[in-house]
Specification:
By secondary structure, the protein is an alpha/beta fold. It has 15 helices and 16 strands. The protein is globular. The chain starts with a strand and ends in an 18-residue tail after the last helix.
Length: about 400
């Protein structure tokens, strides 16, 4: 037994799923990985290509070819839509209950009343004839998330120079107490003021109103975030199962915010290089255990429809993946994957429902395919078999396919 490492390049999908024409027609034609490579033909992704990226995409370019020695597969999404929070719960081996889906204005009265009872100063912004948002203590807003499927997520956006993040988290939890959507994403940034948030307020489809986070500048400096989810049972997820067996668990990046564990090896953050620095240290220090890293800056670039930024974050990730591989032995398993797509070229700024790559490294292992998986929960099931612990709620292990004979 050694280390089982999962690197999630957030939103790095490899092609739209078969059901998008029916359930998400706006995602038809999406292929995040290929379209970025197509727009940036000289992008440097040596390690990802060696691991089988083009194999997973299913086509080559002039500069990037299939890898004949790669161990690879692809996975469909079993969760509803294309969501980072639900996607990570799926990767960890559980399928959350289907949450309510509703515009924030359908619960604005209840949230407003609850926050006032807790002592917050609350006012509304927006015309009476349109959906509104709440302003809290003149330094935070509550409204619809406009970057993912509308109606699934509410945002608590804040100015961290005025409201410390601990207080922002308390505000987010207060909102979470009375709403039943999939997530309440609670975050803030430095060097912004309330007007930056309000100037980025938008109304969509006449029913949804929120702050356009990329436009507000909240991501630009000192960004901090916590994802507060609905209906998650950590007891049937691989991190908690490993906790009960005293097997070390480390969660890095957004994974530390949205996956539950009793482990104290948590490294939240956003900066790609800093997160890889944490990963490299854990790989060196941990003799055996489970590590999951989420690289969020790729997803942020997708939301910003910024191909150049996305490509840059991929190149930084690729270089660091090479450094990780150099530290691994025959017992260790590395899986590089995504949680959905976020194609910056598709014409909208929301996640895209795409298959994700499964790029697998194990020293001495070559030419192994794990095929097309029905659910990303197969990752957790494979980890469970690797560590010889109870299986998670969902998933089928593919460990037998990647054994070294």
């Amino acid at each position: 037994m050694g280390k089982f490492i999962v690197i999630v390049l957030d939103s790095f999908g490899v092609g739209y799923m078969d059901d998008v024409a029916e359930v998400r027609p706006e995602d038809f034609g999406s292929n995040t990985a290929y379209h970025i490579i197509e727009r940036k033909p000289k992008i440097q992704l040596k390690n990802l290509v060696d691991l089988g990226l083009m194999n997973a995409i299913g086509k080559e370019t002039e500069h990037l070819e299939f890898s004949p020695k790669a161990n690879w597969g692809v996975s469909n999404l079993a969760h509803q839509g294309a969501d980072s929070f639900l996607g990570h719960q799926e990767i960890m081996g559980t399928t959350p209950p289907i949450p309510f889906n509703m515009p924030f204005n359908e619960v604005i009265n209840e949230v407003e009343k609850h926050l006032k009872e807790k002592g917050y100063a609350v006012r509304r912004v927006g015309k009476e004839s349109e959906p509104q948002i709440l302003v809290i203590n003149e330094c935070a807003t509550v409204g619809d998330n406009l970057e993912t499927d509308l109606g699934q997520v509410y945002n608590v956006s804040s100015c961290l120079d005025i409201m410390p993040f601990q207080d922002v988290k308390a505000l987010g939890r207060a909102v979470r107490e009375v709403v039943k959507v999939s997530r309440v994403i609670t975050f803030g940034g430095e060097n912004i003021v309330l007007n930056d948030l309000l100037n980025a307020r938008k109304v969509m489809e006449g029913k949804f109103s929120g702050v356009d986070a990329p436009e507000s500048g909240v991501y630009d400096q000192g960004y901090q975030v916590i994802h507060l989810g609905y209906g998650i049972d950590p007891e049937v997820q691989i991190p908690t199962i490993l906790d009960h067996h005293d097997i070390p668990v480390a969660l890095i990046g957004k994974a530390a915010d949205i996956i539950q564990t009793s482990s104290t090896r948590l490294y939240p953050g956003v900066d790609t290089q800093q997160l890889f620095n944490h990963l490299l240290k854990e790989v060196k220090d941990m003799e055996n255990g489970f590590i999951c890293l989420n690289i969020q800056e790729t997803d942020l670039a997708g939301h910003g429809e910024d191909v150049d930024k996305y490509a840059d974050r991929l190149e930084v990730s690729d270089e660091n993946i090479g450094r990780v591989i150099e530290l691994l032995n025959e017992e260790d398993i590395l899986i590089v994957m995504a949680d959905h797509g976020n194609d910056p070229t598709i014409g909208h700024s929301q996640h895209t429902r795409e298959q994700v790559p499964l790029l697998i490294y194990r020293k001495g292992l070559e030419r192994k395919e794990v095929g097309e998986r029905d659910t990303m929960a197969d990752i957790a099931a494979t980890a469970a078999e690797y560590f010889d612990v109870e299986t998670p709620q969902h998933g089928q292990s593919f460990l037998e396919k990647i054994r070294i004979r």
